[in-house]
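Sat 14:20. Reprocessing the chain from the morning session after the first attempt stalled halfway. Input below, unchanged.
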Amino acid sequence: MEAQQLRAAANAPIQGSSADIIKVAMIQLHSALKQTGLAAKILLQVHDELVLEVDPKDLEETKLLVQKTMENAVKLSVPLIVETGVGVNWMEAK
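Finished this time. Tokens:
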């Protein structure tokens, strides 16, 4: 039981920081999408993933904008790496 509590205590700041980073990234991405006028909107957040609905004509530009915005949401001593996927549903996009 004690080992489990230690792991939970050590993991809490990491999960909290991750949640803060995705919140910042979502706010910045929402603004960037509005500014560019791309036919894309954020639909859902699942842990550290975002699900967007994107018009196929704006797909490539939106993918680049999502990656750039999320990777630069906060400045860290290590790089944030963002992967994108495309599909008609979330499971296909993974």
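The CA atoms of residues 41 and 53 lie 5 Å apart.
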